[in-house]
Amino acid sequence: MVFLPIVDRELHVAARKRSTYWLRVVSALVALVIGGGFLTLTITGFGIGTPNLGRVLFAVLTWLGLAAALSAGLFFTSDCLSEEKREGTLGLLFLTELRGADVVFGKLVANSLRSFYALLSVFPVLAITLLMGGLTGAQFWRTTLALVNALLTSLAAGLFVSGISRDSQKALGATLVLLGLLIAGGPAADAMLAAAKHIGYKPVSVCRVPAICS
After folding, report:
1. Does the pLDDT at position 93 exceed 90?
2. What is the per-residue DSSP string for 10-57?
3. Under DSSP, is residue 209 helix (H, G, I), strand (E, B) or coil?
4. Using 50, 70 and 90 to split pLDDT, how confident is the model at 51?
5. Residues 6+ positions from 117 with CB-CB distance below 8 Å
6. How many other C-beta atoms lie within 10 A of the C-beta of residue 54?
7. pTM value > 0.70
8. 32 contact partners, CB below 8 Å, separation of at least 6
9. Are 132 and 29 in contact, with CB atoms under 8 Å apart?
10. How far apart are CA 67 and CA 70, in angstroms?
11. Nearest CA to 186 among 214, 146, 137, 158?
12. Does 133 score more than 60 pLDDT?
């Protein structure tokens, strides 16, 4: 028996899709066009220093990569399990020796492959900013890990909604709402914790001579 048969089947299906190749090509081309534009500004002397252009290019590519990573769950996993429910093929899978974890993991791997390749194709262009200066290697690696983490979070959110939904449009809307809550939840929680610490903070007097302190 093939190890993780659903993963093997889904990867074979994804390998035959043209979108698997075109998505990473388009992603790399977009990053190259943006990076080439910034490098052209550097060569022609736009009036901005090279380190500043490096930081701006890094910020632009990072925000574009973050937007693409967070939207991956909407387009790749929000309808992967609900589609099987509508077609009536999900129940057939459980008539075999497969477990629920095999099906879920297989769908996650197969549907995350294209988005992961697309994000991976942007990293070499993002690394060009290291040569331009203005940032450190630690910043680059932290950013790449954060982008991968955002991608996995988005894909997991879409897969979760797809597992409890049946209609594609409702699954897409619920995934968008869930991602919005996850994105806004972190900063909101940080702000609430900071406000709670500020309210609960009481300065302690270190003066030991009351007459002088008063």
Report:
1. no
2. HHHHHHT-HHHHHHHHHHHHHHHHHHHHHHHHHHHT-SS-HHHHHHHH
3. coil
4. low
5. 20, 23, 24
6. 21
7. yes
8. 125
9. no
10. 5
11. 146
12. yes
- The structure tokens listed for 195 are 């406000």
DSSP states of 83-99:
HHHHHT-HHHHTTTT--
Q: Has residue 156 got a pLDDT over 70? A: yes
Average model confidence (pLDDT) across the chain: 78
d(CA 199, CA 188): 16
User: What is the per-residue pLDDT across 29-47, written as a single tens digit (0 to 9) for each?
Assistant: 888 888 777 777 666 655 5
Write the single-letter amino acid at 117.
Y
Task: Supply the pLDDT for residue 193.
Answer: 79
Please report the DSSP string for 145-190 in residue order: HHHHHHHHHHHHHHHHHHHH---HHHHHHHHHHHHHHHHHHHHHHH
- Angle between helix axes 18-44 and 100-132 (nearest 10 degrees) is 20
